[in-house]
Amino acid sequence: MFALWFFSPATALLLAGVLYQILGSRRDRRLYTELGRWVTVDRGCDLFLFELGAGRPTVVFESGIGATHLNWRYVQEAIAKFAGTVSYDRSGLGWSSRCRSARTPANIACELHRMLEGAAIRPPFVLVGHSFGGQVMRRYALLYPEEVAGVVLIDPMRCEQWPPLNPAAQSQLDLGKRLIRYTQPFIFCGLARLLVRLLFDRPGNLSDRLARAVGSNPRHVLTRVKAEVRKMPREVWPAVAAHWSRPSFYSGLRSHFDALPDTVTEMHAADPILDIPVTVLTPASSAPLTAHQLDGIGDHVGQVIATRSSHWIHLDEPELVIEAIHTMVAAAVSETVVG
Q1: pTM here?
Q2: Residue 244 CA from chain centroid, whole number
Q3: CATH code, domain with 256
Q4: How many domains does the chain have?
Q5: What three-state secondary structure class fits 230?
Q6: Residue 322 and residue 78 in contact, taking contact as beta carbons nearer than 8 Å
């Protein structure tokens, strides 16, 4: 009798949580996707993109490993005043479909190429990539050089810092995977959605208490993520929360982590980009790239130090990123006119 008494309320609570998750997901999709569109790049794979502005070359944004098109909103709105722009969600993240292939730069670059073709967005492109996204844009420029007018890399991921080149960093990857695994049971029952909503709706004391409750290593991750999200325009916070409330976000992030060693192997052996201008923005918090490292990226590479930035330069010093992109777009326009 006691077991029956306990089971019924628990079951009702669980079902209520599942219903809360389902209805919330439908509401989020209706509210936060009306300004973009989906493009089919493969059977069962639709990518969500967000366009602003007009003119050529088109500036194409690629986000960091767990970020979506929302990460670019402030910079994209500024660039759209003088150029066409497109940001998007990689497969497995944001509003895009689940992953259908390993999340390596080559696979992602091919999907991006098919998305741009399917969306009738024509080259030339100025490619802008942050962190992991910088490696994707390097690969795109190597695969489709005739489409690329210039590349801007914002603190691109350094292969030598990750496995297998740096086995000591395996613990960081393992931590990320464990955090995702611990989160899985809470997603489908709506608890993760509730916690994420509270985190964004009351980002002060409550989020600090949540961070303290999860332990030292996860606390460090949550603190960093919370700090960076607060630098984004406040109007995109609800959409970011919606992304973090989706089960597909966590499985997609896990797929990116799983493929990271293959990404490192692929890009460590990548050829340099030839005859295409590349600007690398490096934060003052990191050591500048050496001449040897820059030569490995391309034969026309310039480095700019972001003196007031950490890893997310486009959030810390967006004006510096905007200036670098504007310079690249102006050079491409000038070359087209002269040509």
Answers
A1: 0.91
A2: 13
A3: 3.40.50.1820
A4: 1
A5: coil
A6: yes
Q: 117: how many CB neighbours lie within 10 A of its CB?
A: 14
Residue with tokens 């326009």: 333
Judge contact between 143 and 109, C-beta under 8 A: yes
pLDDT at 217 > cutoff 50: no
**Does the residue 4 lie in any domain?**
no
Structural domain range at position 126: 31-338
Rounded Cα–Cα distance for residues 166 and 239 (Å): 35
pLDDT digits (tens, 9 = 90+) for 23-73: 888 899 999 999 999 999 988 899 999 999 999 999 999 999 999 999 999
Tell me the HSE value of 266 on the side-chain side, using a 13 A CA sphere. 21
Q: Give the span between the Cα atoms of 164 and 326, in whole angstroms.
A: 36
Omega prior to 123 cis, within 30 of 0:
no
* Exposed / middle / buried, residue 170 (Cβ in 10 Å: 0-12, 13-18, 19+): middle
Residue 289 lies in a domain: yes
Residue 191 lies in a domain: yes
Instruction: Give the position of tokens 């049971």.
Output: 185
Task: Supply φ then ψ for residue 233, to 5 degrees.
Answer: -55, 135
Mean pLDDT of 321-334: 96
How is 170-228 classified by DSSP, letter by letter? HHHHHHHHHHHHHHHHHHTTTHHHHHHHHHHHSTTHHHHHHHHHT-HHHHHHHHHHHHH
> Are 91 and 111 within 8 A, CB to CB?
yes
Under 8 Å between Cβ of 50 and 87: yes
Look up residue 218 and give its two tokens: 């996860």
Let me know if residue 181 belongs to a domain.
yes
Q: Are 288 and 157 in contact (CB under 8 A)?
A: no
